[in-house]
Design a protein that fits this description.
Strand content: 15-25%
Shape: globular
Number of domains: 1
Helix content: 25-40%
Radius of gyration: 16 Å
CATH class: Alpha Beta
């Protein structure tokens, strides 16, 4: 209930600030475990992806530093976030993430492992999402975000794009990794 209330409120305020153009949202299965693997170019990306998914509640991982302050910790946890120390993954954390997937929920992961502050549209992906997809097992949907850096610009209602790729069924980690990497690279460097 809290999640959907905040979702509606955030969607209203986001609409006042920017345009959100979503393509391929129908590729997200409405049931069953799924990992959404997105690129990460702005601090607004979790909100942008969350607002683009209207039929499922998303769970997501956030860097542990964000959970230091009581109110932010309380809010993030109610929105479905779990703290992660990016350089170390504990057994407890892995159990929690796998339990999310094994209870047929949707999990958002930023595949690059950090925010991309470079001029390149995509950093090399980390392997973590592919391990989770194989272990859970869970299907994967690639997500490409563009334009979210412009949300804080002086531009009036900039356009933010969220593109969903084809569903990749659960399978061996290398297969899943390469399929997601290929899809995201095709979004990042479209052929004219």
């Amino acid at each position: 209930m809290f999640y959907w209330f905040i979702w509606g409120l955030a969607r209203f305020f986001f609409f006042l600030r920017a345009r959100l153009v979503v393509t391929g949202q129908d590729k997200i299965p409405q049931t069953g475990p799924v990992i959404l693997v997105a690129n990460h170019i702005s601090g607004f990306d979790p909100i942008v992806v969350g607002l683009s998914v209207s039929k499922r509640r998303l769970r997501f991982m956030a860097k542990a530093e964000l959970f230091r302050f009581f109110l932010f910790n309380w809010f993030l946890r109610r929105m479905g976030a779990y703290p992660v120390k990016r350089e170390e993954v504990s057994k407890e954390f892995l159990k929690k993430i796998l339990s999310i997937l094994r209870t047929n929920q949707a999990l958002l992961i930023f595949g690059e492992g950090t925010r991309n502050r470079s001029s390149e549209p995509l950093l090399p992906l980390k392997m973590g999402f592919a391990y989770l997809a194989e272990m859970a097992p869970a299907a994967v949907v690639p997500v490409f975000i563009s334009g979210s850096k412009s949300i804080t610009s002086k531009q009036f209602r900039p356009t933010v794009y969220v593109q969903y790729g084809d569903l990749i069924p659960a399978g061996p980690k290398q297969t899943v990794y390469h399929a997601v990497e290929t899809a995201l690279l095709q979004f990042a460097y479209p052929k004219e």
